[in-house]
Every structure is written in structure tokens, then in C-alpha cells.
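In response to the reviewer comment on reproducibility (Comment 2.3), we provide here a single inverse folding case reported in full, input and output, so that an independent group could reproduce the run without further information from us. The C-alpha cells appear first.
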């Protein structure tokens, strides 16, 4: 009889933990979907930023390593 009681309480605990985990997963999912598209504080300007002249002079990554 004691074994049955212990198993019942274990099952109940596992059910509660399962519900907690499900709730946590759902809250994480909802947080992620909200942060995937961060709000921009200012709208993008139509023109791209001016290119720096040294950008063309950079070595490709493989040449830099050697």
C-alpha cells in the first residue's frame, strides 16, 4: 500500500513538473519571436553610409592568415 501511495505522489509530481516545463517553453518561444524583429529607433536613411577607402585595400581572409 505504501508503494502505491509513493508511486501516486511521484506521478503527481512528474505531472506538475511537466506542466511547468511546458509553460516555460511557451514563454521562451514567445520571448524569442518578439526579439527576432527588434524595433528600430530611427528609420533607415535612403543612401548607404559612405564607403571607407581602406575597405578596398584589405587582403582577403586567406592571404591574411599566411
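Designed residues, in position order:
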Amino acid at each position: 500500500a505504501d508503494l502505491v501511495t509513493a508511486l501516486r505522489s511521484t506521478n503527481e509530481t512528474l505531472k506538475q513538473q511537466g506542466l511547468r516545463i511546458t509553460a516555460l517553453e511557451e514563454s521562451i518561444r514567445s520571448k524569442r519571436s518578439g526579439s527576432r524583429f527588434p524595433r528600430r529607433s530611427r528609420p533607415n536613411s535612403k543612401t548607404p553610409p559612405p564607403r571607407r577607402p581602406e575597405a578596398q585595400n584589405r587582403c582577403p581572409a586567406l592571404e591574411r592568415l599566411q
